[in-house]
Structure formats: C-alpha cells, structure tokens
Design goal:
17 helices; about 475 residues; globular; mainly alpha
Length: about 475
Amino acid sequence: MPDTRSEEITEGPLGRVLAVLAAPMLVQNLVLVGQQVVDVFWVGRLGGDAVAAVGLIVPVIALLTFGTWVAGSGAQVIISQRVGASDTTGARRAAVHAIGVVVAVNLPLAVVVWFTARPLVGLLDPGPTVAALAAAYLAVLGFSRVTAGVSDVIEKCYFGAGDSRTPMALNVTAILVNVGLDPVFIFGWGPAPGLGIEGAALATLTGYGVSAVAGLLLLFSRWTGFSLRLSAVRPDRETLGELLRVGLPSGGQSAGRQIARVVVVWIVSVAGGGAALAAYTIGARVASVVFVPAQAVGSAATTVVGQNLGADRPDRASKATWLGVGAGAVGLGALGIVQWLFPATLARLFVPEIGAETLQFTVAYLQILAYGYWALGTIYTVEAGFDGAGRTEISMYATMLQYWTVRVPIAAAGAFLLGLGALGPFWAVTISNVVAAVGLTGYFWHSTDTGMLERAAEEAGTAAD
C-alpha cells in the first residue's frame, strides 16, 4: 500500500506528508550508503591500490546511469502528475515505457564497456597497478547498471505514485544480497573462488539482479497500491515522447556531472598521486552518507510537487519545496559540523590501516567538504521544485554551470597555477556547491514569482485529459 493516499498529499499537512514519504527513502539511502561503505571496507582489505581503483572508476561507471536517469526521472515526474490528476492509465503507460527505455540504453553501454574497459581506464593514467585493478572492476560492474537500472526505475515509479515503502524493501533486498556476497566473491569463501576486486563488482550485479526480478513480479501483482496491467504493455508514441522530454535533461545533467567528476579525478590523481586519489574516494563515500537526508527529502518533495500540480495546487507545490529546502540546509549544515570536528575518526572507519599521507589528505578534504554541506542540502531540495514541475532542464543547466564553469576551472587553477596540489580540486568541490545553492535558490524564487508552477499545473491537467 502507498505510504500516503493522493488526497493526503494534495490536502494534508505538508510537513507530515514529506516526513512520511521521506522516512523510507532515508532508510533506503542509508542502507545503500552502508553497502558502499562495506564495499570499500572489503576492497580496502585488498590494499590501497584497490581503494584507489574503485575511486578512479566511480565517475566512469556513473556515466552508465544515463539511461537510468532519463527513465527514472521521467517516470517519477509523469507518474506523480498523473496520479495527482487521477489518471491511472497514463501512470501505468509511463512505467512500462520507462522500464523499456532503461534496458534499451544501459545494456548496449554495458557491452561496450566490457570490451573497452582497459583503454577507458588508461585515459586517466593512474599507473599500471591501479589501472589493471580498475579495468577488471569496471568490466564487470558495467553490467550491474542494467540490473540496477531496472530496479531503480521501478523504485521511481513507486515513488511517483506516493509509495516509498516498496522501493525501500526492494533496495534493501538488493543491498543485503550484495553485502552478503562481497566477502564470498572477493576472498573465495566456501566453494566460491576468490575473484578479488572483480568479486565486489559481481556481488553488486547479483544483488540488483535479485531486486529487479522482485520488482517486476511486484509490479504485475496486486500486492501493492501501484501495479501494472498487460494492457499497458504496448508502445505509445505520445507517452514515450513525454518521458524523453522530461527525462533527457536529467540524463544530460547526470552525464555532465559525471564527466566533470572524471576530469576532477584526473586532476586529483596527477596533482596528488595515489594517496590523494584514495582520500578523494573516502571523502566521496563519507559525503554520500551525509547528504542521504537531503536526497530523501528532495525525492519526496518531487513527488509532492508533481501530485499537487496534477491536482491544480501550485500553492502547495511551492510550500513543499521551501519546506524541503529549509530542512535540507539546516540538517546537512549540522552534519557538516560533526564531520569537521572528527575527520580522522571518519577516515579510519573506512580504511583502518590508512597510511599517514592518505590520512593527511583525507582529513583536509573532509573538513573542506564540511563547509559546503548546507549548500548540498539546498541543491537537492530546491531542484525538487523544478523537477516536480517537469522543468528538469533547469536542474541540468544549473549542474552544467556548477561543474563546468566553477568546479573544473577552479580545480585546475588551484592544482596547477596556484600550486595547491590536490587541495585545489578539494576546495573547488565546496566552492561550486555554494555557488550552485545560491544561484538555484534565487532562480526558483524568481520562477515561482513569475508563475512557473501555475503554468506547470495547467500543463499537467491538459496532459491528463
């Protein structure tokens, strides 16, 4: 059953609605981050080069989520608006097309990566040992983007319908399988051979495979509040066009962000070597734990905004966005204070045998990141207001400016022109987050003041008729 009925989302207390929808997402994201922490924990037992290899390909593998972002973002926005407008048939059609899109995009990309993993990693010039480990990890992990993509899109469909409990159950299932298989596949427990770093990738692939199958079975059952009918499984050009119109900017946003991250990883690697790269990896993992609450509130706000616009309630859509922005900024700002005070403790949680040079870099990066956590909380939640209104292109443009006109230039200038080494890109991350938060907040205020949400409500009502 959904966490909240559509009537509650469009009529009930907004604080309660956001909390009820966000709570399962928060649990889900925390478990997801826990899986990433466990991955680094077990991979860390293979040595510092293995940790650096994982950090090297994280932005590369994230590029393979392009189809997931397109299909998932499009599905959540369209389904939320259709549910708000009581158009169940339209919501079901959007779900079916989203699943088809993610498979059609992610599977060919995974095949390409399997054959080109080594030259792709070589472009980043990490050294022969790290390159060999990273290529082995990437080749297998590429196929996990297919199973994870299907699982993620199904979860977005449920999110859009106002059900965040079913996605939580699916994601927790995937992660528990992954975590359970990590030591088995990495070190070869029992009859399973030890596959080293490839074993970590295989565990991820298997976990999301189980989740994807379970999700498909649930969608075609009557066990949940949002389910599909065979009548929805047919091509519909109008639905596909709308899905791509809404989802492609989100895919472009993700791709632009990840390519920029690849460039920043290269700068960190060249400027600081393996120790700085390992610190960057640890910092990214810690940060992923911290901004989990903002992700949860932002995703909940996207659904609340979409359903209220479908129900012709732009006033509530605006209030939900600002409520989420306040919660995200204050919450993450508080977590930033904790991180600034205890950076070494956090670093050792990830890599107990961390070397002195890597620890020094990691402490510096964690403290620099902490200054901009309030901004991260703002970015995730203010984007929900734009995305829920179907204006995903605004989030894309903001991300492009954040990464390509602020982060990458400052990272390069700091590392090579100002002589800051790896500290240059470390500071670039925080500065770009602050600039993006201020710019997005100002533009959302301007957009709502000039009638963006009212126009979106009118368009959502027309599409559902």
